[in-house]
Specification:
Layout: E1 2-8, E2 11-16, E3 28-31, E4 35-36, H1 42-45, E5 55-56, E6 62-68, E7 80-82, E8 86-87, H2 93-96, E9 107-108, E10 116-119, H3 122-125, E11 127-128, H4 138-144, H5 147-157, E12 165-169, H6 173-184, E13 189-193, H7 197-206, E14 210-212, H8 216-226, E15 232-237, H9 242-250, E16 252-260, H10 271-277, E17 280-283, H11 288-300, E18 310-315, H12 319-327, E19 333-337
Parallel strand pairs: 12-13, 12-15, 13-14, 15-16, 16-17, 18-19
Antiparallel strand pairs: 1-2, 1-5, 3-6, 3-10, 4-19, 6-7, 7-11, 8-9
Helix pairs in contact: 5-6, 5-11, 6-7, 8-9
The structure holds zinc ion (ZN).
Zinc ion is lined by residues 88-89, 91-92, 94-95, 103-105.
Length: 338
Amino acid sequence: MRGAVLYAPGDVRVDDRDDPKIIEPTDAIIRLPATCVCGSDLWPYRGLDAAQEPSPMGHEYAGVVQEVGGEVRTIKPGQFVVGSFFASDNTCELCQAGYQSSCIHREGVGGAQAESLRVPLADGTLVATPDLPPDDLVPSLLAASDVLGTGWFGAVAANVQPGKTVAVVGDGAVGLLAVLAARQLGAERIIAMSRHQPRQQLAREFGATDIVTERGDDGVARIKELTSGLGAHSVIEAVGTQESMLQAIRSTRPGGHVGYVGVAHGVELPGEELFFSHVHLHGGPAPVRRFLPELIDLIWSRRIDPGRVFDLELPLEQAGAGYEAMDQRRAVKVLLRP
Ligand SMILES: [Zn+2]
């Protein structure tokens, strides 16, 4: 099969790779009608998580089950399924508490920018759709696998509540879908922080009521201005840098919540400032599996359309050009068609 491989920073190529096979009896093999590039794939692409050897890329997936191992009970060949970047048993104490991305048996799923994929712990990881989806729902179901699930977790971790004010730091796909999540969870005022006109527009379509173009201390000051000097009740951090994390914490009112879902790179928090902030911090790799049944239902009934974050579609063979477009911020999110 064909699949995208990162050889070195800035160097993604589509190669012949071995077809995935059942290794453990709890595995499933799924065929991918579409795949995509994640903002977090840009960290290694930019050389920030330097891989020592060529790495198959991609961790977002939805597709049709081709084959299952002998111990798979609920997932069947022919089903259309959505999973997440961490496989989970969905039965251990941490999974039952809703933290499947910390499952005691968790396993990373990688190499999803390809024609097909092996998914471990199929019964615990995969959620089947009610039927085979119409083609136009595939991008949204694929978005549920990571960026929507992650944005949703950011909103839940930030304790978004009906009638409250939410600010979102970051205008990538996760930030934009955190806006959508905040809207669905009933927030009254949703402030999207973005300097890019097309992203501001999408944020508004997803439910943002205000746009703040300033960053850093100026961005914090603007959020305070919009909230009677107090800060937002809930702030979702969807970048992962020192600046974005401090911007999120400082934009939150005392007693408020930060949900941080940008993969942290070099973030160090000042303890004394944190102590006096009275802010709740919660985040981490999203337990997407917790939210998948609800997200699939919202997509299936066409109440949300998260697939609109895909603003560039390319053949899988042009994955390298897709990475380049996202790296240069010419695209919010790239859909790849095997
Ligand atoms: Zn578990």
